[in-house]
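Annotators were shown the component list below and the corresponding predicted structure, then asked to write short factual statements about the assembly.
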Amino acid sequence: SQTIHQWPATLVQPVGSPLSLECTVEGTSNPNLYWYRQAAGRGLQLLFYSVGIGQISSEVPQNLSASRPQDRQFILSSKKLLLSDSGFYLCAAGRLGGTGELFFGEGSRLTVL
Amino acid sequence: ILNVEQSPQSLHVQEGDSTNFTCSFPSSNFYALHWYRWETAKSPEALFVMTLNGDEKKKGRISATLNTKEGYSYLYIKGSQPEDSATYLCAFIRSSNTGKLIFGQGTTLQVKP
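Structure shown to annotators:
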């Protein structure tokens, strides 16, 4: 089965500072990769997904960006964090095509002060 | 904009009660529907992946049905136990098959012993 490693687990950053959250996947090749965010009191909002190396689709206009430099590596970044970027971020991997279940990382809690 | 709606938002039941929740999704261009259970301090875990109209799936005391023509899925829990307490999420994929999963906001279930 797939294992999703995500780090850091907790992050407290000042407004205007950069961000890098990293996600790596074991146990599969050529997965679909996803970044989701759960803001307080809300469900999972899809931020980015990728069907292959260098292929990134952005779902909502925002202060964040994503990159997939390797098949099983997915990075979420920001050049300058905003207060509204605070939340719980989850990386997920799924079978290409989307019919298979998603496997999630343990999440990263970001607090922007 | 794809809207996936779940109801109720939260639910409190007594141990032994049976319960059900609803997931509504766009009925056009259906590809797949997923159900996940998200326990506190853990990652979401897949319960079911459903792809065919009329699908019924079961795992222990939990079962799900799917109606793609009218755009809804029900999740049933028979004889709820305290360990069933979690947030239950559904996610929808359209037939464009980009692998893009859109989640509902979840139903949070609390089972009192």
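Statements collected:
1. The longest strand of chain A covers residues 44-52.
2. Residues 52 and 85 of chain A are 26 Å apart (CA to CA).
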